Amino acid sequence: MVVRQSSRCGSRRVSVVILVAAVIASLIGFAAPSAAAPGDPPPPMSLQDLGSSSTISFPGQQGEVSMSLPVPQNLTPSVLRGLTELPAFVTGGSVDVLQDERLISRTPINPEPNSPIELPLRGLRVDQNGADIVLRAYLRVEGLCQFDPENAFRMVNATVSYTGREAIPDSVAEFLPPILRGLTIYIPDDVQQAEGAAAVNLATAVVANYGAAQVPIRTVALPRSNMTPPTVPGPLERQIVINTQANPGLSLQSDDGSAYLVIGGSADELVTQTQFLTSNMAPIALSSAAVAGSLHNAPQIAPSVQTLGDLGIGDQSVTSASWPTIDFGIDQTRLGRPSKSISVQLSGSYSPGPRDSDGLVAVRSGDRTIATIPTDESGSYNQWVDIPDDVVRRYTPISLVLQRGDLSEGCGNGYRSTLSLSSSGEVRSEAAADPPQPQGFQSLPQSLMPRTQLAWTKGDVGDVSRAVSIAAGLQGMSAVPLGLDVVSMDSASSSDQPAILISADGTGLPSLDLPLRADGRKLSVVSPGGGSSSVTLDPGISFGALEVTRSGDRSVLVATSTNDSGDLDSLLDYLSTDQRWGEVDGDAVMKIAGNDPVAVNSTAINPESEDTRSTGSWGTVVGVLVGAAILVGAVIGGTLLVRRRRERSAAG
Asked: Residue 362 belongs to what domain range?
């Protein structure tokens, strides 16, 4: 789903710096497959499930938002629902739904806080599995009214409902619908490495295919001789069986009024067959079976100079009676590598405004102004702006704000001004920052590009399921497909390529400088410079963890536990729910049974100090009681960071 808005999204990325253990949210495991029949209408779906923000923000007194709704075959969008958030000076108004300037519906706005609103969508024309619409808001105001991106009319928790009965796919080309509510991958209970590698590559390919839309993925074991899923999929859900004993290629099977896909082939060709499903060749597979040939879709090394358009940032223009604002961002995954010294060429036009209005274009990243561009009577700007390394993130938000000192607070008394941004502006950066900027989880997945090796210690169904969860989570944070190669632990340990290492019980890993160290009842957090802080707990604790470290000049992500794979599985389930992967900061995240995960930033430790605390003194420093268990707080000598992922619409 694509949403183009003239103002910044209603939800900002919020960073919480906590000197004690961070509580994220209650643990939510993966839901079981839906019991609804595949032909039933799907339940209402959040806009976030369709690849956009669940908050729709309307700029100004007469705001307009363009949307493109995905529409599966035989379904029709029926209603767009949400709750309204209105500035205090708005007394009412209406929202129109239009398609090609044809009025679909007009709905009044209730000025009461958090009032529900329903925008009828019946009568939309669907073209190529999509429907383009425009939402146009007209607001009644009184008294002082200062519209700006932080004070706008919003629809929050927006959902779309569909009517009709989903068409059951009858060809490989039609197997993946425009909206995918969930995918279950079935592998043999004595899974081979090639089958595990195929499952991992399938998961990343499917997540990449749906972009920002959330796609929950489950991995389930079947007896090798059984290639039929035990349940039917729910509406807009899919099932895929991977088995080397199946016929080579992709074969669509019918069962109990539904369909599932079987992917087979030898160990050497199985990954290629899984990649075919989301390749540009899939639309021509208009039959119930297809065998893929050689595919050339390996990730490429990105150039050092690109344009904003290359990064998915199109031409933008906004008109407002207050301060026009354009929001975009620099995504390191689109740069294709960890980068530093990023410079952006900003060019476009603006309304000159009244004489002596003392205007400027402020360039901001979050709440920090990183540059200003003076305005004059020319009405155009073209300036290079350096993004400070200390504000660079995986996704660095940038805002352009046309500011003037003559803005009137009276409703309808302001000058309507326009600000535009050209997509032709160049983006330059230094490649392969070592260490990455920023470090830790914010360096993922760009520090794993262009290709990463993935290895596990056992290679059983549990390891494959963990690898699928990790691969899908990393792909969900990337705007471009990831390249993952499943290899042996020995190969990944000795390679100079980035790596993902999975040891569910904490054994069989190579020697690495990991942020977390557990030795009986003693738990230590070690900084990259060698400093550490530790605590001795009585009784001791066990935990599952994901840790990011550097080995030579490569990044390594380690999934491990203190001899209890259940703790690691619980952590992965938590992160896979609602795409929480993008929320974590620091260089390690740990989960103790019965408690919420805690993210750890070991870089805040003084590299020259060795700080050891006992259970008694630790409690007086900054112990934290979460539920009935004591977690490690500021004994790590620094900051525990948990970052809520900023909801943002895809730029049109």
From this structure: 309-424
